[in-house]
Amino acid sequence: MKVLVTGAAGQLGSELVEVFTRAGHVVVGSTHQTLDICNVATVDGLVEAERPDWIVHGAAWTAVDACESDPGRAEAVNGGGTRNIIAAAERVGARVLYVSTDYVFDGSKTGPYLESDAPNPQSSYGASKLSGERAMRPSDLIVRISWVCGYHGNNMVKTILRIAAAQPTLAFVDDQVGHPTFADDAARGMLTLLEAGASGIFHLTNQGVVSWCGFARAVLEAAGDDPSRVAAIRTADLQPPRPAKRPANSVLDNAAMRAAGLPLLDDFRVPLTRLVGRLLAD
């Protein structure tokens, strides 16, 4: 297959380019610098020139709190930019895999979120990503991920290790729970979905429900450090408060993967150990 990856310099996009290339597919990567997804002519020109079989659309404005202060820009990039990708894909007969998020849900459900659950975003970021979802065609793929971590880019694993190196104690909330998603595993899962010719909505995360506090403790444990250095606090006690509301429950059930007979990603502690080892070796 020929695959165009948008957002190819990000933590997920970098892994997508590597994984798809290693699998023998022809990969074209575009970055924020080389493709403005809000520019219709630029999008049309690239897609027409490359004529991919698939567009894996990972480009997005993911700064959740910044989106909250500029909802118009969030919608322009995550909603409008995605509609531009779909329109260009339609003209060349390409299918699209759209990378979405747990933020499309309100976080109030007591159990894990299924692909069939009704979205109800509580932030500008979540609303803009849902806008992108609604642009998808029946033949396309929507893949929701959550709590993304990886070797490339900024993420919570790197933040936790940096804080732990600088101060004796750390404080993380224990009233937000989810499934971490490691970028290299997610890229392999997306490759599996594309090669299977899948369509529709899939939740794709690593397994294992954990709070941010529990995750921080797992990071320290993977680093050979003392997890008891991490104190539990409530979201309401965060100072300063975060502008965007976070879902209290971000647990995404990978039910569609199971129903399709596709392999689930490992428990998050497996890629976490791998990633921490790699980061500490740098």
Detailed description of the structure:
This protein has 282 residues and is an alpha/beta fold. The chain has one domain (2-155, 179-207, 250-265): NAD(P)-binding Rossmann-like Domain (Rossmann fold, 3-Layer(aba) Sandwich). It has ten helices and 13 strands. The chain has helices at 11-22, 40-50, 64-69, 71-92, 124-133, 156-166, 183-195, 212-222, 255-259, 269-281; strands at residues 2-6, 26-30, 54-57, 95-101, 141-145, 148-149, 170-173, 177-178, 181-182, 200-203, 210-211, 230-233, 249-250. The strands form four sheets. Strands 2-1-3-4-5-10 form a six-stranded parallel sheet, sandwiched between helices. Strands 11-8-13 form a three-stranded mixed sheet. The radius of gyration is 18 Å and the shape is globular. The model has no long low-confidence stretch (mean pLDDT 97).
Distance between the termini: 34 Å
Give the biggest beta sheet.
6 strands, parallel
Taking pLDDT < 50 over at least 5 consecutive residues as the criterion, the unreliable ranges are none
Number of domains: 1
Radius of gyration: 18 Å
Run of helices and strands: EHEHEHHEHEEHEEEHEEHEEHH
Q: How do the strands and helices of this protein lay out in sequence?
A:
Blueprint (H helix, E strand, L loop, with lengths): L1 E5 L4 H12 L3 E5 L9 H11 L3 E4 L6 H6 L1 H22 L2 E7 L22 H10 L7 E5 L2 E2 L6 H11 L3 E4 L3 E2 L2 E2 H13 L4 E4 L6 E2 H11 L7 E4 L15 E2 L4 H5 L9 H13 L1
Parallel strand pairs: 1-2, 1-3, 3-4, 4-5, 5-10, 6-9, 7-12, 8-13
Antiparallel strand pairs: 8-11
Helix pairs in contact: 1-7, 2-4, 4-5
